[in-house]
Every structure is written in C-alpha cells, then in structure tokens.
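FW: tagging you since you asked about this chain on Friday. Here's the raw sequence from the shared folder, copied in full. Didn't touch anything.
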Amino acid sequence: MRISRKISLAAAAAAILTAGGVAVAQNRTTNPVHDVPAASANGNLVVGLCDGKTTAEVPGVKPGQTLTPKQAQDVSDRLMNDWKAKNPGANWDDAPKVAQNAPPPPARPAPPEGPVASNGGKQEAHTYGSYTKRDEEIWKASTDAFIEQGRQIFHDAGRLGGTIGVSCDMCHPNAANTHPETYPKYQVQLGRVAMLRDMINWCIENPVRGKPLADDDPKLKAMEAYILAQRKGVALEYGKH
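HL: got it, structure written out here
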C-alpha cells in the first residue's frame, strides 16, 4: 500500500508538472486572438483596435481585400478617436518623448596607441579599452541603420506582413504611446506578463492581421530597437500602466 501510494503521488506530481509545463509553453508561443468579426452585417470589412473591443467598419471594402493607405489611415483615426472618447482619462502620449537635452556622458580617456604591454612584456589588446573614435562611429552607424530599418518596417503594412493595409504608425505615429520603458508588465490582452516584442507581435496578429514573428526574426528585433530609440533618456519603470 505504501509503495502504491508513493507511485500514485509521484504520478500525480508528474502529471501536474507536465500540465504546468505545457501551460507555460503555450503561454510563450500562443496568444489569445481578438473576437472581432471579419465582416459587418453589411458584408464590409471590420477592423479592430489593439484593445480587442473597439471596432470600425470600412464601407465598400470586403474581407480579403486590402485597404488603400488613405482608407487604412482613416479607419485607424476613427478607431483611435473612438477609443479616446471612451477613455477620456487615459494618459495618451501624442509624440515620443526623446530626451534630446540629456547631459552627454563623461568623455572617455583616449585609448593607448597599439597593444598594451603587460605580463612581462607580452603584448595584449584590451577588447573593451582599446577602441578608437572611429570604432565608435562605425558602431553608431550600424546601430542607426538597424533602427532605421525598424522605422521602415513599422511604417510599412506589407513588410509587417499585414493583410489589410494597416501599419503600426497609423495608430502610433513615430511610435507614440508605446512606452517601451514600462516593460516587462502584465498585459490584460495576453493574460500574462509580456515583453515589448510580445506586444509588437500582438498588434501584428490582431489589428494588422498578419502572422506573429519569431523572437529571433530580424524584423521584430529592428522594430523593437526603433521603438526603444524613440524613448532615449526616459527612465525605466517596468510594470507601469
């Protein structure tokens, strides 16, 4: 009896752990989707906002058709105006808060020319101490190019993989009101704690109606870099809503 009881308890514990593992795995890879109808009663395309509740009909456009840039911007504006009217107390940032006037970092001492002598006269190069001004310029140019790539994707429904012609900037011009400094935080839409890239994917999958990107997708990384760059100098405040 004791052995059977131990086996039963072990089996139950394993089942719980296995179920928990599956649940965690599903939370990481599967997001809930909006319950937004594809078409209105009139048969027109219905577009939903990222809150999963606010929707708008696009007259004359049927499901499966792609909006023109003007139609996409018009319906995005209608959705945002509707949301703001329903949430008058919401703290919406109309423009990114890039801290352009932040004090510059202290000047670094000039690195030595060539390898540094140490260890009894052996010549060593210090990876983190011997870079030059030219190195910094190359690194900055590479970073700026990556951020620019993210900006272009953020503004391009096609490169996002959207199917209705809506791009991220239509609701978040210049990444406004994305608040990357507040992640990680609990997101009601996802029912779990999310990172910035999780919410980018959420918007791609729902308002944009595309396929979510893998965590290591260069497009997802570039958009994340672009959004972060728009809040340069803003203090981190994870968990803030």
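FW: The longest helix spans residues 2-29.
HL: agreed, and The two ends are 54 Å apart (CA to CA).
FW: great, closing this out.
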